[in-house]
Write a structure and sequence with these properties.
The complex is a heterodimer of chains A (about 600) and B (about 300). Helix content of chain A is about 35%, strand content about 25%. By secondary structure, chain A is of the alpha/beta class. Chain A has a domain of about 250 residues: 3-Layer(aba) Sandwich (Rossmann fold). In chain A, the strands form 4 sheets. Chain A has an 8-stranded mixed β-sheet, sandwiched between helices. In chain A, strand 21 and strand 22 form a beta hairpin. In chain A, helix 14 packs parallel to helix 16. Chain A is globular. Chain B has 11 helices and no strands. Chain B has a single domain, classed as MetI-like fold. Chain B is elongated. In chain B, helix 3 packs across helix 11, helix 4 runs antiparallel to helix 9 and helix 10 crosses helix 11. Chain B is an all-alpha fold. The chains are: A alpha/beta (about 600), B mainly alpha (about 300). At the A-B interface, helix 14 and helix 16 of A face helix 8 and helix 9 of B.
Chain lengths: ~600, ~300
């Protein structure tokens, strides 16, 4: 057997904090062989990031690592920083979750890659420049020569992450450690990045450590997997063993908690109750929300950014509408406009029988009793200076002013009980809770006034998978109890599929496809929908390997570019940035199945 | 369930409620771990206590002149070349008209601390209200309100004080107005900046979605959250106000005799620095210690309220 590239034995990581010692990693032992991919799975706080930071000597100042880390038989845990620096960046490289903060903002992308090359291999400038171009092409950056002269902020998130990978592979490393490299990216971009990493593994024989919370991401690329929890490696083994024959309860739980885009109705998980009452609660017609954006130059004219550009839908009582789309597609703007938190530019929003834009501001505020929202970031959406009891009570006090103090308190306790919070925690503060508990507070705050429509704006996206599953179950249960309607906004198609009755796919402010949950996944017609669905990683290695991908080239274009709208209907395109373009119409291909016009694929 | 058992359950659950640990409590605990800040708080407390009760306990009224002991050193003064010794209980010596310097220093402390605290309070109230409103409303109103601040900033403040003094005669009250009028400008800027960043946070949107109106959002959500940086600035405004008052008094524009402040005392002491150094040393020492304490407390508060910055 060949010598492993990296061998870690009995590694312990501890942190000294004002609140005492924290044991981040306990007795970790593992190895990585030549040109293999080790997937490391765990939820937040499992110590998976700290384990690899400690391995390459990048722990924070209050951290301490003990044990043994051998790189090709040589002990590196005890090396001094200058010695480690020689190794890091050339033989062992690392990429992180947020590519913007890992790149220096004041240097061009090319200069940064060249600098790293010259530091580690001492190449002359011309050679380094050529090599930099090569690696940028290797990670499939179009127009590499032009990109070299751009600054990090001029590139999109996916592009930046590709630059990071290019930089990390420039010196021909033996080992690439990728810490949640795709977590901040859209699914289609994530699929592209994962493909690049897969190619690196096969073409350059680079060993890869892929740290992720997402079983689906791991399934497509890893050869071996280790599962971490609270600083311990609870299970490790070849990928098929972990996915098909898990031994540890935690691994089983993790696998079970993952929503699956290919199979929404699994045993033990909530699915939406069928709707019987066809009363239309909300109808949105040709809604447009434009934001004025100043052009370049002192006297430039403002031009509209079409965040939402002619969206229509109806929502029935007790129904869940899923809205899917990548970042910048206008899904959050749509939600906020429906809630009258943002002003609309054109179109109508009718709630029951009232046109929301025709009523006074005071009435709009009172209407919030019926329309509520749950936000993405549970901690950021709670006032840090208020107890959770005060936060939950706030909408009650505002929207039902007649209530006595005791009945407000009683209602708060009641709803806390319903969402699975201990009523005794009423006087505690958000920072004393975990993300999942805080999201329960957010749900309680929305539900306490007994609204008829709740909009969940990425409500589970910031949570760990196991918590995510619990929160989804909770939302479905609350819906079944109260008969409310839901608009469930997410970039995660598997979650949307599990919870929604009907699904609407948005692309740059316009609906590209609208159908019920079965149809849209089984019989997607629009190329964008197809690409989106096929990009979702499935936590099933065999299915993931067998999957055929529908690829979209490049990133999401700028919504200011009028041509972007017609990316799937090039035959009608006028090639001018500012031109008024043809608007693709929605065509009903089957009852209730709307597809935007597009060129045949 | 009967009413009585309902009541007991209610009472029990009330006692079972876990007391939360607010961010303020966290900050207080961190502050009390900071030795310099704790010592400063204690020293400042002692000075404030002395200023409050000291003049009642001492044998001399603050304005009683005694021409037998003009500019006399305290009995323990080590320099043998002094002209005379004050004798008795003039522990800090006497001034140029024979008043007891200890009682005047403590009296001066009263005035200086009062000016510092009241001027700061005035600037706090105006600055927070003005800054939070401008920041929350944003847009054109914000622009207008901030340009007004710019205009006020550009008025030379010594001239402003001199003009005020000439028009309204010398007046204790005018001092607060003059100092407060300058200090609130910076305060409103700080509060506005903080408000702008807090306004972007999701919990403000959540509050709007909960039906809270603009006034409620400013008072319940924005002001409590800007209080961290504001309180730090307050502890730095108090010494700045004390200094401003001393400066005005030093120029003869501030507190008038027989009332006194540290600024007045230092001004008098500076005139006789060579013959009677104690007249400068004692008030200057008190003032320096007080300013030091405020700055240390401000430092400690900043670390306590914003632990990530350390």
């Amino acid at each position: 057997m060949p010598e492993p590239i990296l061998e870690v034995a009995n590694l312990n990581v501890t942190f000294t904090t004002p609140d005492g010692m924290v044991h981040a990693v306990r007795d970790a032992s593992f190895h990585i062989d030549e040109s293999e991919c080790l997937g490391v799975v765990g939820e937040s706080g499992s110590g998976k990031s700290q384990l690899f930071l400690a391995t390459i000597g990048l722990l924070a100042a209050n951290g301490k690592a003990t044990g043994s880390v051998k790189y090709r038989g040589r002990e590196i845990l005890s090396l001094s920083q200058p010695q480690l620096n020689k190794l890091r960046g050339s033989k062992i490289t690392m990429i992180f979750q947020d590519p913007l903060t890992s790149l220096t903002p004041h240097m061009t992308v090319g200069a940064q890659i060249i600098e790293s090359l010259r530091t580690h291999s001492g190449l002359p400038y011309g050679v380094a420049e050529k090599r930099a171009m090569e690696v940028l092409e290797l990670v499939r950056i179009p127009e590499a020569a032009r990109r070299m002269r751009q600054f990090p902020h001029e590139l999109s998130g996916g592009m930046r992450q590709r630059v990071m990978i290019a930089m990390a592979t420039a010196c021909g490393p033996d080992l690439l450690i990728a810490d949640e490299p795709t977590t901040a990216l859209d699914v289609t971009v994530q699929a592209q990045i994962l493909e690049i990493m897969r190619d690196l593994k096969t073409e350059l024989k680079t060993a890869i450590v892929l740290v992720s919370h997402d079983m689906g991401v791991i399934a497509g690329i890893a050869d071996r997997v280790q599962v971490m929890r609270n600083g311990d490696i609870v299970e490790a083994g070849p990928i098929d063993d972990i996915f098909y024959r898990p031994h540890h309860d935690y691994t089983k739980m993790l696998l079970d908690a993952m929503p699956r885009v290919d199979n929404p109705d699994r045993k033990g998980h909530a699915s939406p109750a069928p709707t019987a009452k066809p009363d239309v609660l909300l109808s949105v017609d040709d809604l447009k929300v434009y934001f004025p954006v100043r052009g370049k130059g002192l006297f430039a004219k403002t031009k509209p950014l079409r965040a939402v550009d002619g969206v229509s839908f109806t929502l029935h009582q007790g129904e869940t509408l899923g809205i899917v789309g990548e970042s910048g597609c206008g899904k959050s703007t749509l939600a906020r406009t429906v809630l009258t938190l943002l002003p609309k530019t054109d179109g109508t929003v009718v709630w029951m029988t009232r046109d929301l834009s025709q009523i006074s501001q005071g009435d709009q505020r009172r209407l919030r009793k019926e329309l509520q929202i749950v936000f993405q970031d549970p901690l950021a959406s709670l006032d840090p200076r208020m107890t959770i009891g005060e936060s939950i009570a706030e909408p009650l006090k505002m929207l039902e002013p007649g209530l006595s103090r005791d009945s407000v308190k009683a209602r708060v306790r009641e709803i806390m009980n319903q969402v699975g919070l201990e009523p005794g925690w009423i006087n505690r503060y958000p920072h004393e809770f975990s993300g999942g508990q805080n999201q329960r507070v957010g749900i309680a705050r929305a539900m306490v006034v007994k609204p008829r429509l709740v909009i969940c704006d990425e409500a589970v996206s910031a949570l760990d998978v196991s918590i995510q599953a619990q929160i989804i179950d909770l939302i479905v249960k609350l819906q079944a109890d109260s008969g409310m309607s839901l608009i469930f906004i997410s970039h995660d198609l598997s979650v949307v599929r599990q919870i929604s009755h009907r699904v609407m796919v948005l692309y740059l402010g316009r609906v590209v496809e609208f159908a019920d949950r079965e149809t849209i996944y089984k019989d997607a017609r629009h190329p964008y929908t197809k690409a989106l669905i096929s990009a979702v990683p499935i936590p099933d290695p065999k299915a993931e390997r067998a999957k055929k991908r529908v690829r979209l080239s490049g990133d999401l274009p700028s919504p200011l570019d009028s041509r972007a709208q017609l990316a799937f209907l090039k035959s009608k395109l006028i090639d001018d940035f500012d031109a008024e373009q043809y608007r693709p119409k929605l065509i009903e291909v089957a009852p209730g199945h709307l597809v935007a016009e597009h060129d045949p694929v | 369930m009967s009413v009585a058992t309902d009541r007991t359950v209610e009472l029990m659950s009330r006692t079972l409620d876990v007391k939360g640990r607010s961010l303020w409590e966290d900050a207080r605990r961190r502050l009390f771990r900071n030795r310099a800040a704790v010592v400063s708080i204690i020293v400042l407390g002692i000075i404030a206590l002395l200023a409050l009760v000291g003049p009642f306990l001492l044998a001399y009224p603050f304005d009683a002149q005694d021409y037998d002991v003009v500019s006399c050193a305290p009995d323990w003064w080590p320099d043998p070349a002094v002209l005379c010794y004050a004798g008795g209980s003039h522990w800090f010596g006497t001034d140029s008209v024979g008043r007891d310097l200890l009682v005047r220093t403590l009296y001066g402390a009263r005035v200086s601390l009062a000016v510092g605290l009241i001027a700061t309070l005035v600037s706090l109230i105006i600055g927070v209200a003005y800054g939070a409103t401008a920041g929350y409303l944003g847009g054109r109103i914000d622009e207008l309100m901030m340009r007004f601040v710019d205009v006020l900033y550009s008025i030379p403040y010594i001239f402003l004080v001199i003009i005020l003094m000439v028009i309204f005669n010398r007046n204790f009250f005018l001092l607060f107005v003059a100092i407060g009028a300058v200090e609130w400008l910076t305060m409103s800027r700080i509060v506005r900046g903080q408000t702008l960043s807090i306004k972007q946070k999701e919990f403000i949107e959540a509050a709007r979605a909960s039906g809270v109106n603009g006034f409620g959002i400013i008072t319940r959500h924005i002001i409590p959250n800007v209080f961290g940086p504001v309180i730090v600035y307050v502890t730095l405004t108090v010494p700045a106000s004390i200094l401003a008052e001393s400066f005005l008094s030093f120029l003869g524009l501030g507190i008038q005799e027989p009332l006194t402040s540290w600024g007045v005392l230092i001004s008098e002491g500076a005139n006789q620095m060579e013959t009677a150094p104690w007249m400068l040393i004692f008030p200057a020492l008190f003032m320096a210690i007080t300013l030091f304490c405020f700055n240390f407390i401000g430092d400690g508060l900043r670390d306590a309220l914003d632990p990530k910055d350390r």
